[in-house]
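Hey, can you fold this one?
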Amino acid sequence: MLVAFSVAPSGSNAANPDGSVHDAVAAAVKVVRESGLAHRTTSMFTEIEGETWDEVIDVVKRATEAVMPFGSRVSLVLKADIRPGYTGELDGKIERLEAAIAERDAG
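Sure. Predicted structure:
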């Protein structure tokens, strides 16, 4: 299964008067990287690939908990692609998309 998520603190935090969330995001991404699951972080989301709900959601939960000290509340956005029996989809979906674009451009 693939999960794309974005987690960020909100509310007051004297340590971040400019509203920047990069330190909080870094704490969350550290959890993801240490999980051992395939992952990709972009400017807006982090994607994780795992075989079970439990292993993927555990990482999302721990990443969310890592952000909690950075604000008085935390916002979590999550999207999941649940397709049992498939692995390597973090890159596979992109490879198929690029092939379809190349085929369309060639035709």
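The chain has a mean pLDDT of 92. Let me know if you want another pass with a different chain boundary.
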